[in-house]
Amino acid sequence: MSKTRIIGKERPSVPPEPQKAVPPDADEPIMEAIELLFFGYRDFVSDPDVILTSYEFGRAHHRVVHFVGRNPGITVAELLSILLITKQSLARVLRQLIERGFIEQKTGEKDRRQRRLYLTAAGLDLWRRLLEPQHRRVRRAFAAAGPNAERAWRDVLLALLDEEHRPEVEHVIAKDASPEGTKDRK
Q1: What is the mean pLDDT of residues 122-140?
Q2: Cβ distance 139 to 155 under 8 Å?
Q3: Could you say which of 8, 26, 65, 182 is the most buried, measured as most Cβ atoms within 10 Å of its Cβ?
Q4: For helices 76-83 and 87-99, what crossing angle results, to 10°?
Q5: Is pLDDT at 23 greater than 80 in this prediction?
Q6: CA distances (Å), 53 to each of 11, 28, 49, 64, 121, in order?
Q7: The domain 45-173 is classified under which CATH number: 2.40.37.20, 1.10.10.10, 1.10.460.10, 3.30.70.20?
Q8: 3-state secondary structure (DSSP) of residue 83
Q9: What are phi and psi of 183, to 5 degrees?
Q10: Which of 7-11, 103-107, 152-156, 168-172 has the lowest mean pLDDT?
Q11: Which residues are bridge partners to 6 per DSSP?
Q12: Cα(133)–Cα(139) distance, rounded to whole angstroms?
């Protein structure tokens, strides 16, 4: 058994258990579905990645721009809840987007401690540029998959979520017809 040196002390290291490979008789349609998720995501983000590169932004910037665009006036706390990232990670990305003029912060009217986030005109333009190729790609996929594709896609993706996240995700994606684009956000 080998030994590992940890802060001046030697401790025997425990060899890791061998990883169990998926058996060759694994459910092939499930394996294909898993791989299709990887490939679909790769291509789904490819067009926005090219656009983001020209701004020296990454996918974290894309997610922030998307959810602020989709939820004008969202608080930093709400955005953290959606993205499930650390405050530090969000702070870095948000600072860059604010400094570069894509997002603006406004103090909450009812609660002055809140920071509400909005896309600027430049932010709206970037959001639309990032969204357009993805919108086109998904619209084309639904058309190719047939009349029940949208509902089936939604059902499958919601079922992939951890059960405790489903209600929040359903709330986030549920939009009304108001100009603000969100429910309960004033």
Answers
A1: 98
A2: no
A3: 65
A4: 120
A5: no
A6: 46, 36, 6, 16, 20
A7: 1.10.10.10
A8: helix
A9: -90, 150
A10: 7-11
A11: 9
A12: 10
| Cα distance between residue 168 and residue 124, in whole Å | 25
Strand 3-6 relative to strand 9-12, pairing: antiparallel
Sign of the four-CA dihedral 132, 135, 138, 142: negative
Helix (H) or strand (E) holding 106: strand 103-107
Nearest Cα to 127, choosing from 183, 184, 55, 75?
A: 55
**CA 165/CA 162 separation, integer angstroms:** 5
- Residue 96 backbone dihedrals phi, psi, to 5 degrees: -65, -45
In the chain, what's the furthest Cα-to-Cα distance? 66
pLDDT recorded at residue 75: 94
Token digits for 40? 């679909």
Find the distance separating the first CA and the last CA of the chain, reported in whole Å.
63
Quote the CA–CA distance of 164 and 186 in Å, as a whole number.
27
pLDDT, greater one: 15 or 185: 15
Dihedral of alpha carbons 83, 87, 89, 95, sign: positive
C-alpha to C-alpha distance for 14 and 2, rounded to whole angstroms: 8
